[in-house]
Amino acid sequence: MAVRRTCFEEVGGFDEGFTFYGEEADFCFRASRRDWKVLWEPEARIVHLRGAISTRVDVGAYARRLLEAQCKCRFINKHYGARPERCYRRLIRWAVAERAILYRWIARLYPSPRWQARAEEARLRHEVIFQ
Length: 131
What we know:
By secondary structure, the protein is mostly helical. It has six helices and no strands. The protein folds into two domains: about 1-45, no CATH class; about 60-130, no CATH class. It has helices spanning about 5-10, 25-35, 60-70, 75-80, 80-110, 115-130.
């Protein structure tokens, strides 16, 4: 992400309430509301060591934080209110439950290591989000 200093200062920098991903979406949203142009360069390539530091902590805590970040609940609450956030959270829970059921079914029909792994990952996500 490349940002002009004037834009960064005008927008107020990153919201430190986003502790785990999502801060760039919030920043870009706020910048666009202040008439700054937000561009995405699809040809850009970045090497990212997927969670290299964050995955060294408790796996359950990491999964919960990742799911929270993925559903962008804080972003929705901040910009649209509590009611849309609750609706979105319910949709995410349904989607996670549906995926766990579907992948478990597919893994039973096609008992390949690939589908077994997907079913297990979906089960763990379901378990974490419904705790």
